[in-house]
Amino acid sequence: MAVAAPNQLNLTESSTWGSRSVDCFEKLEQIGEGTYGQVFMAREIQTGEIVALKKIRMDNEREGFPITAIREIKILKKLHHENVIDLKEIVTSPGRGTDEHGRPDGNKYKGGIYMVFEYMDHDLTGLSDRPGMRFSVPQIKCYMRQLLTGLHYCHVNQVLHRDIKGSNLLIDNNGNLKLADFGLARSCSTDHNANLTNRVITLWYRPPELLLGATKYGPAVDMWSVGCIFAELLHGKPIFPGKDEPEQLNKIFELCGSPDEVNWPGVSKTPWYNNLKPSRPLKRRLRDVFRHFDRHALELLDRMLTLDPSQRIAAKDALDAEYFWTDPLPCDPKSLPKYESSHEFQTKKKRQQQRQHDEAAKRQKVQHQQQHSRLPPIQQTAQGQGHPPMRTGPNQNMHGNQSQAVGGPGHHYGKPRGPSGGPGRYPPGGNPSGGYNHSNRGQGMGGYGSGPYPHQGRAPPYGSSGPQGAGPRGGGNYGSGGPNFPHNSGPYGASGTGRGSNLMPGNRNQQYSWQQ
């Protein structure tokens, strides 16, 4: 395990950062998009190296450079670890030279700013969403050990990530996993007495202490998110897919039990405990629900998803858990299979295109059935109700006692077969049930920080009546997306919605101006 120490920090300044133009790179494909930027796969023209370009969105910034981007750059310049995404440099693009009316504009600061990251082939969400994808136990152990190693390095160096989710965990085709999207990350003190915003972490991965309004917290918030990721890898789908904060808490309490002063000393003092506590006591059912898990895996998961953050297992202790030291052992990353590029932004786009294709085919089928069901009325052929009488021949008496056809309306006015207006008026055709069976995938951005970011504010996040909001799993890899709450986010942080949504009103840099 790589040991994190202060002397491992990258404290050297790069004099070339910001001096090169984005024209040194050729954009190949967009791999993420979100509230705070876009992410592109690009090739450096001079060397041919493939990189990820994250464009920092400046459109809505009236107070200068985005504070989230400043924090991300500052933290990533300081961290240097094999399981943390590498920020290579900052490049710029010149301003347009004209204003919105086409008049000359000498403001040279209206150009674009890009963060250049190493390129990663996948994010964990995009990879797991591939059809038929199922990770092996050695593969899960390999990914989890790398995630905990990178997170331990961050925590030792007093950095909280605050947005751990699948779309922010990037993986290359050599099996290496790296933490990305540090747009919500914060340096923290060891005493954890600073007031921090609780409007962080994508909803599906947010710990109960933040959902109950805590503003003093530490590395344990990241470990809860890791537990959710671990359970998702073993279970095959998210275990807490809440639509809003109250529902998210209910799902947590139904699985992990209701909190009280016995299993979580001090919980009754959290700001929203009295409004959001369960109406009746609930037993902890985690070991029963996941009893099919491996014994050592279940033991580790149980310690990660402990309600009391002070009793939650730390990253360093998790790396020493029996789970990683029993057969089957974690595999070598290089031995993992290679996959086609899979970022959440791309997989979401493919699912949307497939849904549109299915809907178009469905509409075409309906139109086809309608055209073939509107047939002309069939003439009655019962005796006496057929065609009008034919003209008499030479051997027939035209004026004799010939019986006239009964009820004989002409051919063009013949009655249709069956009662008029009834269900048998038209012959049956097409699908008798009138329904169409089709499969439609649910929801699903990714790793470099592309998911939306939660907003901040000093006022109570839920107003006077309690929390509101929603959020899918999602996010953005390289950290270019907004809050991940109706997650949901492409790698490098440029995706929009993802797993766990965070639809919160207001500017997250205005709210909680006293909390960072």
- CATH top level assignment of the largest domain: Mainly Alpha
Task: Summarize model confidence as the mean pLDDT.
Answer: 76
Which radius of gyration do the C-alpha atoms yield? 32 Å
Order of strands in the sheet with most strands? 1-5-6-4-3-2
Q: What is the count of distinct domains?
A: 2
**CATH architectural designation of the largest domain:** Orthogonal Bundle
Poorly predicted spans: 380-384, 392-447, 449-476, 480-491, 494-498, 501-514
Q: Total helix count?
A: 11
Approximately how much beta-strand content do the residues carry? 5-15%
Subunit structure: Interacts with CYCT1-3.
InterPro entries: CDK, Kinase-like_dom_sf, Prot_kinase_dom, Protein_kinase_ATP_BS, Ser/Thr_kinase_AS
Keywords: ATP-binding, Kinase, Nucleotide-binding, Phosphoprotein, Serine/threonine-protein kinase, Transferase
Biased composition (Basic and acidic residues): 335-347
